[in-house]
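Cast an eye over my tokenised protein here and flag anything odd:

===
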Amino acid sequence: MQKKTLYFAVSLALLLVLFASLSMLSGRLLRGMRLDLSENHLYTLSEGTGNVLAGLEEPVNIYLFFSEENSRELPQIRSYAQRVDELLDEFANRSDGKLQIHRVDPEPFSEKEDEAARYGLQAVPVGVDGNTLYLGIAATNSLDDVQTMPFLQPSKEKFLEYDLAKMVSALGHPQRKTIGLISSLPMTAGFDPQTQSTREQWVVYEQLSQLFTIKTIDGQDTSLPEELDMLVLVHPRNLTPDLLYQVDQFVLGGGRLLVFIDPLAESDRGDPADPMAQMQAGSSSTLEPLLQAWGVSFDTQKVLGDLQYGVGSGGTRHIGILSVPRAGMNADDVVSADLEMVNFSSTGWLQPLKDATTKVEVLVESSENAGPIDASRMRFLANPNDLMQGFTPSGEKYALAVRITGPAHSAFGDSPPAQAGKDDLAGKDALKESAEGGINVMIFADSDILSDRLWVQKQPFLGQDVVTAFADNGNIAVNAVDNLLGNNDLISIRTRASSARPFERVDELQLQAERDYRATEERLQQELTETERKLTELQSGRPDADLLVLTDEQKAALQKFVDRKLEIRKELRQVQHDLQRDIERLGTRLKLVNIVLIPVLVIAAAALFGWRRRQRQVRQAHKE
């Protein structure tokens, strides 16, 4: 027994020494290796990243600037820097030598710190002694193009792969696509006369400008710029007939088009010099007669309400603001697949025409608990609950975004409008039908989907604003542009960026509680109305009585109503209490599983493994 114990102790000591030696000698060799058990495999390079790296046309150099010394008291930053370093190594390994990684420690008052400043990287102050921290990336190609990530935010780790792939793709393919943008909404930076301050550009515009060259086009122009790779229309109001015709011809000739129309664009604040326009902020837009030629209809007088996807909780739900979950996305289309949630506000819907020659595919749709609402009710809405009055779901699903493909004819037939200052285009250059392959158009029935308020939140972090997305509005917009331009690799990376997982069971509990709450509230209102009617009848039956004095019968009826009202309020509180209790019970069960059950299963599995190993050793000893 003593010999066995001695052998065991010596073997254990040797194993420890061997493990320590391997850890020190092979740290670099095993760097970044991990077992990725996350649901979306967030720590494994996606196929899209591999395609981007394999298709690089230009060699790319990436410079990682990280302050080693000044980060020693910041373990979270150091851990994230290691994650960035490991991911860059994986990028380099998959690039077939076209991607080179350079690590730079910009020590204070050094030439390397001057280099970081030249690239525009941000030095973040840390501590009280005036030290600064760098954690940023600069990347270049052989054409001296430069892309930077001034400071890497740990809170944006789930977007790290996409941001790096986007940077590498832009430098590895230096010929940027050109997008023509026609918008009547304030998407770009400028001066806001209403607030007398500088207006920031919308986040989605910033994202697109980082990826593509954007040419803005005035809606009153009569022609489109030359050499556009794609056209984007955002709330196209009052376009000139000549410009509409140009759009018609652009699409028929094979040009790709992305459109955001709206029955009530809340982001359109009207003319700042017109007080009446300010009072009636919000306007409609359409693209007729082009929509009809492409096979869809759009009602500018109606918005969509949805009991299931309307935002809110606790008995108050705004059915005019929709938060469409994955269930409302087309999982078979790369533009909408794998997205978690897209928010719409006062949205319309698109209806395919029966005689359409095109194919209309739905990208995003409402639930079956949706129905039309007059747009005027949303314009002057004071209380979201008012939308519930008279609202009846139709039991149908409505298309909020569609893709239109296939053969189409010109919306202008043989009579195109004459361009101002140019010859009539009815001649040989005029297209009456689509080119081979048909048209390729995507249309969203809402333009507010692009506004920051529906999908991003800005918070200060270490001296700068951090933009955090709480919905996938930006993703679906940029996905649509990438797809129409033929770049699906970045889409596959971007759509897997979201790591947030909805608590579906909790959402079901909340929805059921809200239904119970709504039913109880309606019952209370009915009883209130009925009681007031009875009081009115009792009062009208006493022509000689003082109308300000209640009879005993009226007092009894009134007291009965007050008592019943208190009872129903108690029922409302009980509904909320039951909801919270069910959620707490669910949370307790989840904690029990995570804290107790999982460790028990791991220990049991280890014990079973050890027992089977000992059994094999015993059987082997008997054989010998």
Remarks:
- The chain has 14 helices and 26 strands.
